C-alpha cells in the first residue's frame, strides 16, 4: 500500500513578511501585523473550515498594487500563500560615504604654566602700644577693702607681676590701676604728655652776716 503524496510546502506571500496595518470593515486595527496574527486566532477555531478571522480582516490594497490584500490569498493558514519560497528582500543599499580629506594632525597644546608661587603669609599685626596714665595723686597703695597697704608707694610697674591678683587687691587714693595701668587692662593708646620736671634743689645757704668768720685750720 503506497502512501499518498505529501502536500507541497506552503509559504506566506512576501507581501506579509513585513508587518502592515489591517482593517476590519472600515475600521483600522491598532498596530501592524503579519500572517502570524491569523495563525494565532485560527488555532482557536475549528480546523475543518476556513478560519473566520481570515474573512473578517484584510490588508488594504494600495493604489496600483496587484495584491488583493486578502488573507485567503496571502496567508497559508487561510488557504492562500505560494508554493515557491519567496526570495528574501534585498538588503537596503548602503550609501557610499564620500571621501573626507584627512586633516593634518593638530600640534600638541603648549604646556600650561605652573601656578605662581604663593606669597608667604603676612606677619600678624603688632598690638597697639599702650601707655600708662600718669598718677597725678599720691602713690601710696590702699587695699580695696580699706586701709593703707604695707607695699607702700608703688607705680604701675608694681602690677606687671601677678597682675591678676594685684590689680583687684590694690588701688590708689583717687585712682584705680584697672583704669590707668596697661597691665591691669587700663592705660591709653595715646602717649600722655611727660610730667613737669621737678624744681631744682636749692644750693647751700650763705653764711649768716652776724656769725664771725671761721679761722683757717692749723697746718699739719
Main sheet summary: 3 strands, antiparallel
Rg estimate, integer Å: 63 Å
Structure class: little secondary structure
**Strand percentage:** 5-15%
Series of secondary-structure elements, N-terminal to C-terminal = EEHHHEEHEH
Average predicted local confidence, pLDDT: 77
Q: Would you identify the regions where 5 or more consecutive residues have pLDDT less than 50?
A: none
Name the overall outline.
Answer: rod-shaped
Q: Helical segment tally? A: 5
The residue fraction in helices comes out at 10-25%
Strand order of the largest sheet: 4-3-5
First-last Cα distance:
191 Å
Number of strands: 5
What does this structure look like?
This protein is mostly loops. The protein is built from five helices and five strands, in the order E-E-H-H-H-E-E-H-E-H. The strands form two sheets. The protein has a three-stranded antiparallel sheet. Strands 1-2 form a two-stranded antiparallel ribbon. A hairpin with a 2-residue loop joins strand 1 and strand 2 (27-28). The mean pLDDT is 77.
Amino acid at each position: 500500500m503506497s502512501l499518498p503524496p505529501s502536500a507541497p510546502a506552503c509559504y506566506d506571500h512576501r507581501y506579509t513578511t513585513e508587518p502592515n496595518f489591517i482593517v476590519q470593515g472600515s475600521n483600522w486595527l491598532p498596530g501592524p501585523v503579519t500572517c502570524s496574527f491569523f495563525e494565532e486566532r485560527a488555532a482557536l477555531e475549528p480546523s475543518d473550515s476556513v478560519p473566520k478571522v481570515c474573512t473578517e480582516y484584510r490588508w488594504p490594497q494600495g493604489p496600483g498594487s496587484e495584491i488583493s490584500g486578502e488573507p485567503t490569498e496571502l496567508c497559508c493558514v487561510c488557504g492562500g500563500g505560494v508554493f515557491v519560497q519567496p526570495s528574501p528582500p534585498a538588503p537596503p543599499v548602503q550609501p557610499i560615504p564620500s571621501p573626507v580629506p584627512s586633516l593634518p594632525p593638530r600640534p600638541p597644546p603648549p604646556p600650561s604654566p605652573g601656578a605662581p608661587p604663593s606669597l608667604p603669609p603676612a606677619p600678624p599685626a603688632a598690638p597697639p602700644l599702650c601707655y600708662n596714665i600718669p598718677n597725678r595723686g599720691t602713690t601710696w597703695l590702699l587695699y580695696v577693702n580699706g586701709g593703707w597697704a604695707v607695699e607702700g608707694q608703688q607705680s604701675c610697674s608694681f602690677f606687671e607681676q601677678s597682675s591678676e591678683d594685684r590689680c583687684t587687691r590694690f588701688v590708689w587714693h583717687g585712682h584705680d590701676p584697672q583704669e590707668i595701668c596697661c597691665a591691669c587692662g587700663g592705660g591709653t593708646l595715646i602717649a600722655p604728655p611727660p610730667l613737669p620736671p621737678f624744681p631744682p634743689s636749692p644750693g647751700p645757704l650763705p653764711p649768716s652776716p652776724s656769725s664771725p668768720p671761721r679761722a683757717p685750720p692749723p697746718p699739719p
